[in-house]
Amino acid sequence: MARVEMYATRICPYCSMADALLRSKGVEPEKTLVDVHTEERARMLERSGGRRTVPQIFINGQHIGGFDELKALDQKGGLDPLLAEAAAEK
Ligand SMILES: N[C@@H](CCC(=O)N[C@@H](CS)C(=O)NCC(=O)O)C(=O)O
């Protein structure tokens, strides 16, 4: 099973939609709430190449983008194979 990370905030409709899509695939994303843990926002910007909106989603460390990109990836059939990839051993 892949490791799915999601930078989010507590009130965020796009985060909720991303969460629902991932859960529909049986995946529970590891959430980092950047409005609670504000020090993590800099890390999100660094990892996402400067993207400021939430969510920012990573699958096995690969930056996917926000909800729109996640949904587009699913619609072209690319999400399921990524989610099926095992997370790298740490
Ligand atoms: N196209 C983006 C839209 C994300 C978005 O607008 N998120 C809102 C929160 S739900 C946000 O970050 N707003 C703050 C901002 O635009 O700076 C996606 O699909 O993720």
UniProtKB/TrEMBL annotation:
MF terms in GO: glutathione disulfide oxidoreductase activity
GO CC list: cytoplasm
Signal peptide residues on this chain, from the entry's feature table: none
Entry annotated with the keyword Electron transport: yes
Keyword Lyase: no
InterPro entries: GLR_AS (IPR011767), Glutaredoxin (IPR002109), Glutaredoxin_subgr (IPR014025), GRX_bact (IPR011900), Thioredoxin-like_sf (IPR036249)
One GO term (biological process): cell redox homeostasis
Keywords from the named record: Cytoplasm, Disulfide bond, Electron transport, Redox-active center, Transport
Occurrences of domain Glutaredoxin (ranges): 4-64
Entry superkingdom: Bacteria
Its biological purpose: Has a glutathione-disulfide oxidoreductase activity in the presence of NADPH and glutathione reductase. Reduces low molecular weight disulfides and proteins.
Similarity remark: Belongs to the glutaredoxin family.
Name this protein carries in UniProt: Glutaredoxin
Record organism: Thiohalorhabdus denitrificans
